[in-house]
Amino acid sequence: MQVRKLVLDVVKPQEPSIVEYATKLSSVEGNEGVNVSLIEVDKRVENVRITIQGKEIDVDKTFEAIESLGGAIHSIDEVASGAEMIGHAVTLE
After folding, report:
1. Is a pLDDT exceeding 90 seen at residue 51?
2. Closest Cα to residue 45, out of 16, 5, 3?
3. pLDDT at position 85, please?
4. Which pTM does this prediction carry?
5. Which of 5, 27, 76, 82 is spaced 20 to 30 A from 88 at the CA atom?
């Protein structure tokens, strides 16, 4: 399966930092770009949104890297696959 974009909702300990998360995840083969955004901070954990793009993301290795940093995947919010990326059109009613 060729995955080109992956958006994850992750719960992680406050350490390591989101900088370390982005650096570690960008070193996983197939991950060409990584964005980690802080969503919410609690006493012991942080909720982050991780967006990964690449020509062929290795989903299993990416999940393993997140778990090795102490993170837990709360949900998979978006996946893009195929030869082209498709943008989202927003319609207002």
Report:
1. yes
2. 16
3. 74
4. 0.89
5. 27
